[in-house]
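Deliverable D5.2: sample structural annotation.
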Amino acid sequence: MYMHPISDKLQQKLEKRKLEHSLRQLRVSDGLIDFCSNDYLGFAKSEELYDRISSELDQLKIKSNGATGSRLISGNNDQVEHLEHKLAHFFKGESALFFNSGYSANQSILSAVPQRGDTIVYDELVHASIKDGMRLSFANKISFKHNSIEDLERKLVASSGDTYVVVESIYSMDGDMSLLQAVATVCDQQQAFLIVDEAHSVGVIGEQGIGLCAEEGILENVFARIYTFGKALGVHGACAVGSQSLKDYLINFARPFIYTTALPVHSIVSVSCAIDYLENAKQSIDQLYKNISYFQQKMKQCDKDLQLNNMRLMKSNTAIQGVIIPGNEAVHSKAAFLQDNGMDVRPILSPTVKIGAERLRICLHSFNTVAELDLLVDKLLES
């Protein structure tokens, strides 16, 4: 079969990934115990939430399959505008702008707001969507060491123009929290604008699950907050919360928002129902943290055995628990072993994380049982 020269180049890169044990592949994993999804509270699997969404759609009597265009053309409607008012109120902000995804929201803010001559100072472990948004910006970019307030202060002194500091409330690969109060204090002192991605805290942290910024009491200190709904809320979409001026600016200048077909009414109703459903989720949230505590206690008891097997539990008090197993081949092999034993655990390989920091990213949920957690720890220690 004839292969075009460019296809040959692509295949060479794929072969290199195979040799490095870092080739990504899609897979279906029905029937395995869920230790990999971001469905922390089980909302994505909730039949009750599904029925609420279906009932709400029936009441609206809107039989529409798609939005038919961007929000600025034909994709705007009463449902999304009502949702934005609801989100602004729920997240205690002046306004909210709905996005198709957290990726799109981060790209929009970072590419549109900082201008040439401005500076973006970001934690080195921020999500790829933030980094991709920064690449589209003409602003200067400076990283600071993860959760290092001292390094942040040094980098802010070296910044120019308007300065934007970007952090995540909970880091998606490490599971640890940002030192938000200290970050906010430094930003106030240096007159920098703070942007916080709350993707992994919404639903599970703070009063009513409105995130770490609210829990830390710094809402007034944050220029923009990004909330996504495809994790603990179990649906899809995202929003940016901030001033009315920020919302109006993004509508006018954020290309990922302007040129993207809007989400259909079904997605809008799903988010609205998930927000309502969260009001009665205290039992699930409490159970999630019981499971986190139980897993950590079990792992602490096995610390010497972990060391003997060249493994280390990362420091995290959130649903994201990382077990360091250096080397792509080693961590990939351990993940495959766990999957063969009925548990859906995925490896995080370099270059997604630094070489030597490869890990199993274990996501805990409110619906995981004690027996499942025991099985996970037992099989982790098997060769």
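Annotation notes: The chain has a mean pLDDT of 95. Residues 28-44+281-380 form a domain with the Aspartate Aminotransferase, domain 1 fold (CATH 3.90.1150.10).
The annotation will be released with the project's public dataset once the embargo ends.
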